[in-house]
Input
Amino acid sequence: MFPIVSIQVGKNGIPENLAETLQSHFKNHQNVKIVFLKTSFRDKNKIKAITENILSQLGANYTYRLVGFTVFIKKWRKDMR
Output
């Protein structure tokens, strides 16, 4: 099992360089976990829209899974879209 890097998004909102931060984490890791604290966003549909926007910035090799207020992003070797 590969180690998972964890990133928290709090009440300050999403940082502008989140996509760049994720790309740097994916150089060394295959999985990244983003935890949205309940003080930041309470709407899961908004979290889903934000995650899809982030994935569009990252590229086609990434998929995600939304569990509660936590998003798991996985990098694949092949195009998944």
